[in-house]
## 1
Amino acid sequence: MVSNRFHVEIGPPEDSPIPSTQYAFRQKMVRIDAVAGFRDLQLPQLDGLVVALDWVANDRHHIWGSAVMVAPGVALTAGHVIDEMRCRGFLAEASGQLWAISVHAADRVELWRADSFTQDEEGSDLSLLTLVRTTAASRPPADCPLKFSLARMAARMPCIGETISLIGFKAAGVSFERGAIMGLALVGSVGQVTDQYPQRRDSHGLPNPAIAVDACTVGGMSGGAAFDAAGHLIGVISSGLDESPSFVSLSWPAIYVPIAPKWPPATMPSETSLAALAKDGWCGIEYLDNVRTWLEGQVQMMSISDPNVGKAPNRS
């Protein structure tokens, strides 16, 4: 149970097609009216777009971080969330299981098993998760597709003064008992960009393009979504210590990372990337043509042709 009205039951991994089941994927824009501040959000408010990463081990739920759905069965998160799980032994084969929990409209909950973790390069703070649906007893009628939301990304560098919305789940740890409340809490924080880091911010341990935002974030929000004023996903929350500023790792360096999604079964290509999926209509990336890739030796390099292309104006 997620709360008094949200329920989920674990089923077998959905690794083969279910006859007559249909899926619908909607690219979603997220616009927050506030220009500053921190507040609690309703769990279904983003319709499953932002997910909670729940490590289940030793009879406890550990809400450890957040992620955002960017393609069918693919979520983007902060690399250090996965790295810290490895350092603590959480990802050892016998130590437990990592789940992603998404709460949708009409009080529907989906439970996903993490299948693989891929970083764009060693030490980067971006990681792509491939997920397999494991929710029991939620098959819709054949004429009613099961709907999922995906964030529409933008490959761009936000401008100084631009308003950014940061959304993720609070960290929590609760005992696992039948019928117990899991303790999910979705929160949002809004502020303006104060600094740009087109390549990296070494002094804060961010080896990838990033921005600083005048907004507070709390534990567990790492890996959550950062949306620009137009509603595009521009990155994921990297760090924040309960006070401003918070730092965001921009998402565009992850769009050519090789991934192997396994859900929906028998549907996704076995080897692909977010860029390839976008070209085939499986996800959305604004300004994709402005991302340039080339090889230096055996190292793939990337840049964006205009760091401020497609600037989303602030809402008054």
## 2
Amino acid sequence: MFATMGARGLEAWCLCARALSLAQAGDPRAEATARVAERSARSAGLWGPQAFAYLAVATADPGGTREAASWASEIARDTGLQMPALRPLTGEAHPPAEESAADDRVVIRCLGGFSLRVGRVPMDPSGVKPRVRKLLHLLALHTEQPVHREVVIESLWPEADPEGGTRNLHVAVSSLRQLLAMGSHGEAIQILREGEEYRLKLPPDSSTDVAAFTASIEEIRRCRAAGDEGGAIRGLRTALDLYAGDLLPEDGPAEWVLSYRENLRASAVDAAGTLAEFLLTLDPPAAARACERGLSIDRCRDSLWRTLQRAHELAGNYAAAADARRRYARVLADLGVDPSPAAVSRVLIPRSSRSGSPG
């Protein structure tokens, strides 16, 4: 409801508060709800709700999520946020100073909004110029391979002549190196120049969500080729958990990010559809949830609407199936397509089912 009103901040606060409430009540849905809430808060660019979401994760599974408790504590301390029952829940959330200083693992997130965390400390890039931030975003997308100098210049300064573009690049790289040195308290993150190419060098055990998402998609393909349905289902769920939203939404329609963004979005929607197909007869309600996840990314995917209707029917939830038809009719109307029940049925109901039992 809040999303349709454009109140993303209010939506994030409500989701995170609900997640913490579920966690404190011992509800088994708490951890999954907290993960969704954290993605919503990060996408909205709000630190406060993220702290509540991390605290909910730590409360739901305190034995396996000390890092989440630490992040909640760190944000609360930095922002002055008063957190409910923070101290008893976090346990060892404040490690000794020498352990904290040694933790230079880097976590980069580009899906749903950019964030960079060194150890337990989020880096704030707001103090540098927009082009310097875009350079960081561009290099963060390609941690697995270097980016050629000409690609960087064409992406960030397409209007510049070769000499001016090179000068701009040198200045931006220098500014970014200073930012990274301050944010990582030294040399945790480096910008390496290898001939005419640049890349980010991250410490061991660091991670980026784009690389992890891409690896999940490749793992899904391997599992399906090997006939490993269980492995494919696990990979699909991992991919959808990693996909927190569109790639780098703060960079808008920049050409250097558009095709990459659309490819990742399409992969996420495909993953939702494939997961729903796998689960359709095994667990129809879970298949319906997978469809809804995909439709939250792309509401115009016809195959997801068909599978959603079928999943509700297999679960015996005919009211939900009818609601799916009504919702899809509204989508068609918004697109200027005939939204009549007959037209919707032609799209939603498989041809082989039209002469059979009602559904």
